[in-house]
Amino acid sequence: MAAFLYRMGRLAFRRRWTVALVWAAVLAAVGLAGMTAPEAEEEPFSMPGIESQEAFDLMEERFPGAAADGATARVVFVSPNGEKVTAAENKKAVEAAIAELGDGAQVASIVDPYESGAVSEDGSTAYTTVTYKVDAAGLTDAGRSHLDESLEHARDSGLTVEAGGDAMQDMGGPSGTAEAIGISVAAVVLLITFGSLAAAGLPLLTALIGVGISLFAITALAGPLGLADTTSTVAIMLGLAVGIDYALFIVSRYREERAKGRAAQEAAALATGTAGSAVVFAGLTVVIALAGLSVVGIPMLTEMGLGAAGAVVVGVLIALTLVPAFLGFWPNAILTRKDRKARRAGGTPRETRKVNGGTRWASFVLRRPLLVLLAAVAGLGALALPMTDLQLGMPGDEALSKETTQRRAYDALAEGFGPGFNGPLTVVVDAKGTGDPEAAAETVSERIGGTEGVLSVSPAQFNESGDTAVFSVVPTTAPTDQETKDLVNTIRGDRPGIESQAGAAFEVTGTTAMNIDVSEKVQSALVPYLLVVVGLAVTLLLVVFRSILVPLKAAAGFLLSVLASLGAVVVVFQQGHGADLLGVETTGPVMSLMPIFLVGIVFGLAMDYEVFLVSRMREAYVHGERPAQAVTSGFQYSARVVVAAALIMIAVFSGFIGDSDAMIKMIGFGLASAVLLDAFVVRMAIVPAVLALLGERAWWLPKWLDRILPRVDVEGEALTRPAGPEAEPADKDLART
Question: Would you say the pTM of this structure is higher than 0.85?
């Protein structure tokens, strides 16, 4: 591996113009394809294999003209100063608003609250539901403007008018603020790390090229493959993070080799052969973790994982080819000012510093490894304890800021009609083949209506064929309450008896039921996903490090950091401690997809640090150093760069904490916390402490297994050469500073 990459880096350095032009052509080609590709149609969220999705599909089949996936806006009217919405003037204003709302070109139907009984018992509140012919993504700007203007006109009458529902969602693309913050912080970190504008700018430039290629490719494929917007968002986030990090490690190793007196071409080749080997295997672990999301069985997660995995592959290829090519264009500009000045003066290159912050920290850990290990594990364990209280769900309008009309509409409905009105269940009765469909639907309705925890049941609505009925069930508790989940399970548990009595089958769906089913499916898929991903990654690390204990230690450390970061998410977003500092106004269950999403992304990134840091220790050990010396050498050369890489990723993820959407806040906080804990506690404290305690045993591998495993030479043993100065190639380009 190292020898092959050495030759690749050497060739890219020598044929830098060819390499640069090839990548420019690739960028231009995918850019043209992306810009000319037809706009992708937004695919509705689907979750194969759960009851709520099956019921939803049945509704679409039996009610073809009802637009089961059509957008809805629930408009709430609250009378002023203790008046009633049934008063003549207020009723007139409500009816005028309903008439105006119903005039929208994309509106399919609207319900009169006075005819449907959608007026609270105290008469203070009424609501109507506007149903559209298209889903939320299909609503035009004109349709949204008409809705907003109608609400404003209704408010002019003196009523308090708020609206919720998916029709009110902001369908605009990502603003790019988080990415801008990440790039800005990355630039500062790189400048501090390298002390050179050229060295800081090169990783940013190559990462942006890689992100551009990935983004255009996803855009071009979005139409044919039906990819969602989230696919490109995650690809940008991870492509940017790993693209910077991988280039960072190549450039850092190049400068290290130049400081030893290597010629520019030789230094670039060695950097690609050694650090590049670590990049390849780090990238493979990320790809395994992301592609492994497909085992969960959630189409959206599969798309996000594969799209991001593609971006990582592009980042690896650019780091191995374009980075050494750019080093050929600016071989000396990448060096520190002090080194460039010494070279212009004809001086001898300075020796690499033997003592730095990394070596001092490693020495501290090596002197007291057990104490450091116990303190780190205890700290992560304490953070992970709240995980035992983890509740999964899909936060809705209740998680939004009180400044939004959706949140105010949610609160008004809960106050006027009870918390269950914000999450009604939908029951679909399949009476096909039944002698009396109406009687069957009535029996199901009465039995469910008599269940404890049900506030009310709406009249059944039949399709044109008269063989399928739909009615709503309003719980007494809020959508995210445990009691609501228990109610859904109770109704489904009573199904055999109800169906036997009614002679017809039924299923429960609706947003609340869908969220419950999604949470259960994700929880059941988490353990198999962990087994697949961790198993494959441990096998890969076994090949890289040729050790039994090092990969197991890496996996155990990762689990600690993920559990601790999930515990931190529970503390803030579920229990509410420190929520005000992040602008979280309402606490509730943790987003259902959060744990598996966090595991998939953070596992790959955590293995990055493991490979980069421990591969230098392995390299030193293979080249003859004692285990303790190898740990110190690994920290001497890699600690500063690993810290810089972690800070860059934390900056990228932290940019999302400032988003107004509670779910985006949660994702940003979870990822930033996980990287922080994994990089600075697990990799910087637990890893050296465990290696110090294990000593020679850390690198033990049974002889039979050693014969079976392929040899990839990540540490570059085959590239060992005398460290003395070498003559600079007679290339005019290399003389340029």
Answer: no
